[in-house]
Amino acid sequence: MKVSELAANTAVPELELLILELSEAKTTSYGPMQSAKAKDDSGEVDLSLWNQQVGQFKAGDKIRLTKGWCKEYRGQLQVSAGKFGKLEKTGEASPAPPATKPKVPQGTPAKAGTPTGVVDSVTGRPLLERTVHGNHLRPTMSEIRGDWKTETYVQPDYEYNGVPVYKV
Fold it and tell me: pTM for the complete prediction?
């Protein structure tokens, strides 16, 4: 059986899954419980682990659910071994390839301190080019102060006692 073939309130004769992630174990009125996200090649499904199954599996484990049960919980399909089912580990996923840093194109970075042609509305001084910091641009002082709207030359919606008002 495949995840795409699951239906609420039906038996699951056999289902092979790969555990993607596990939540923290918690104690309910029915006993210890742990939720997991699992998938096969046709889709993802929520998996409930109960009692002795809690703590037996980890993310990346391949498991086989035999004689399980599928139900709908909070709008999502959820499978578990139920009273008569069996959940067993069949293997581990192949290790993920080592993470590599994305290559950043090498170019001439913007020269910090060059005028942009925009004047700060508070100080009247020309704003300087942002400086490159890692993969992020550092904000200008007017953006930090929050008066950046005046630099975009947006007309106020109306004035109240001589104060421009902008609708947000």
Answer: 0.53
Query: 166: which 2 tokens?
Result: 């902008």
Task: Give dist(CA 64, CA 86) in Å, integer.
Answer: 8
Q: Which helix (H) or strand (E) holds 88?
A: strand 86-92
- φ, ψ (nearest 5 deg) of residue 21: -155, 155
Q: What is the pLDDT of residues 114-128, one digit of tens each?
A: 555 666 666 666 665
State which of 92, 107, 125 marks the end of a domain.
Answer: 92
Q: Do 130 and 111 meet the contact criterion of CB atoms below 8 Å apart?
A: no
Answer yes or no: do 83 and 133 share one domain.
Answer: no
Beta bridge partners of 159: 164
Helix (H, G, I), strand (E, B) or coil at 23: coil
CA distances from 4 to 1, 67, 71, 93 (A): 8, 17, 14, 21
Give the 3-state secondary structure of residue 137: strand
Q: Convert the pLDDT of each residue in 11-36 to its tens digit.
A: 999 999 999 999 888 888 888 999 99
* Residues 80, 120 within the same domain: no
Q: Please identify which residue in the block is written with the tokens 């659910």.
A: 65
